[in-house]
């Protein structure tokens, strides 16, 4: 998946499942899939339907997809922001998450 496709996917979720004028996924599904469900690691937050949801202790809430080697799609609905990153951080796959968390706070 290209970084442009990753960003489009993030905006698809930010737009609550809409692509142009078409509703491809229900708003209910988007909402359900990005709500905190299962606490994983304190430094990451919660996991829910293939999305990680930031720790509730953070000032702003955002959700993100995390792939092998530091591939990230971060969505901050409160600021209408999508950040897509590709990295080669196999030795520290959380490094981009730490940078994104700092940036989004």
TrEMBL record:
Q: Locate the Beta-lactamase-related domain: which residues? A: 2-91
Q: List the InterPro entries.
A: Beta-lactam-related (IPR001466), Beta-lactam/transpept-like (IPR012338), Diverse_Enzym_Activities (IPR050789)
Report the coiled-coil segments: none
* PANTHER family linked to this entry: BETA-LACTAMASE-RELATED, BETA-LACTAMASE-RELATED DOMAIN-CONTAINING PROTEIN
What name appears for this protein in its UniProt entry? Beta-lactamase-related domain-containing protein
